[in-house]
Amino acid sequence: MSTATPTVRPADTPGLSAPLAAALTAATDDRLVLDLAGIEHRYDTLRRELPGAEVRFAMKACPVDEVLAALARRGAGVDAASPAEIEQAARAGVPAARTHYGNTVKSDRHIAAAHRLGVRAFATDSLEDVAALAVHAPGARVFCRVATAGAGAVWGLSHKFGCAPADAVRVLERARERGLVPSGLSVHVGSQQMTATAWRTALEDLAGVLRALRSRGVRLDHVNLGGGLPALGYLDRHGTPLHPPLDKIFAVVREGMAHLRRVHGGPLDFVIEPGRHLVADHGAIRAHVARLTHRRGPDGTPRHWLYLSCGKFNGLYEMDALQYRLVFPGHLPAPGRTGGDLVPAVVAGPTCDSDDAYSHEHGLVRVPRALASGDPVWVLSSGAYATSYTTLGFNGFAPLPYTVTGTPEGGARDRA
Ligand SMILES: Cc1ncc(COP(=O)(O)O)c(C=O)c1O
Question: d(Cα 70, Cα 118) in Å, to the nearest integer?
C-alpha cells in the first residue's frame, strides 16, 4: 500500500493551474487568488480563435488594477459601465480610445462625465438615450444594442437591455440626425451562454439590421459581439460539470463575422466584450470551513450542512445559479483512491441570510465527514464577479482581499 502524502494534482483538477495551487497553498487566510498569466493566456487564445476581433474586457467581471493593466499591455481595451469604471481603467493604463461606455443605462451626468474623461464611444438602445448623448457627448460614436432572447444562457439578459431590430434602425438614424456618429451594433447573447445556436441567431438578427441600415444609407464601421463567452470550470446547480461547446461557439462566431462582412459589403471591424470567460477559471478563493453540522429540518429530514467562511455576500454571489468545484486540501483521498468518507451536504455561506447557500433541493455536495472548523477549502473557477459582486461587510463579513500571482515581476502580490 502507498504511504505517499496525498497532494492536489493541478493537472487532474479543472480550474486549478500550478500557479493557483501554489498561491492557494501559501495562503494562510481567506482571499481571492488571481493568476495573471492564466488570464493573459486565455486572452491570447481568444485573439487567435477570433482573428480580427478587438477585445474590450468587461471590467465589471474583475475590476482589479493588475488584471486591467495586464490585459491593456496586450492591447485590450475595456467595456466600462460607469464613470468610476472609466477612471479606474484609465489609472490602470487603458487608453480612453480603447474604452467604451457599454452600459445602455446612463444619466445625463454620467454621460457628460464619461465624455470629459475622453470616452467617445457609447452603447445605446433608445431614442431618449440618443437625445441625451447628443447634448452631453456631442459628436460621439454610438452603437446600438439589439435585444436577444437569452435562451441557452445561465443568465439571459433579455429584458433590461437592447431594442428590437427594427427599432435599432430608428435609433441609429436618429443618432445621425442629431450629429452623432452611428458607428455600430452590439448584442449580448446572455452570460455563460451554453449554446452556439444563440450566437447564430443573434448574428442573423444583426445581418438583418445591417441590410436595413444599408438601404437607408447608414454605413456602420463595426459590430460588437458582446459578452457571454463561457467559463469552462463551473458545475450546474445540481453539481454536474457544465461543458460549454467552446470550439463550436468560436466556429459559429467566425462564420457569423464573415457573413456580416459580406452583408455589409465594405470594411467592418469587430469588437468582443468577454467578462467571465477571461477571468473565471483563473481565479480561486481560499476560504475555510466554519462548521459541518448534521441536524433535522422542519420536516424531520436529517441533513448535513457545510458552512463556509465565504458565500453569496463575500465572493460567491452566483452560488444560487451554479456550483463551484471545491477542494479540501487537508482531506484529499490517498493516492490511487477516490472519495474517502464523504457525506452529502448543503453548502452555504457564513451569513444570517438563507439565500446564502447552494440550491437546497438538488444541490447536495459530497464532502469529507471529518471536516473541522478552520480547515481550508479552495473554491475553483471563482475569478469572475467575485470582487465586484461583494457587499461592503454584510453581517460583518468583509470583502475578500486578493493576491495576484504570475505578475511580470514574478511572485505574488497582495491587496486588501
Ligand atoms: C454590456 C456587457 N458586455 C459584456 C458583459 C460581460 O458578460 P460576460 O461576463 O457574460 O462575458 C456584460 C455583463 O453583464 C455586459 O453587460
Answer: 21
